[in-house]
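Running co-folding for zinc ion.
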Amino acid sequence: MKKDKEPRERNATIRRDIIELMKLGPVTPFDLSGTLRVSEREAAFHLAHALESPSTKYQIEVTPACCKSCGFVFRERKKISKPSRCPHCKASRVEAASYYIRMP
Ligand SMILES: [Zn+2]
């Protein structure tokens, strides 16, 4: 059996799908992993690329990750993956950042 013959094309398809999903509503890597049937890590990787897409880059709205225990908001965080714990109260109940595309 041939191994993954068009990985570039597959990646482009996944990223297009992510952009379409972001137009429908806010998404997190966890949501995407379920919808696209990839690992959460892979979803975060593709989402990072999708966010850099020149056609939609400037329309993306980010809701930063926040702590469910104390309400701390991870405003400075640039990474897509979910923070594992809150630097403020040390709780691990953290809500992931979500991304969506505001359509004109
Ligand atoms: Zn906290």
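Result summary
The mean pLDDT is 90.
Strands lie at 60-63, 66-67, 94-95, 98-101.
Job closed.
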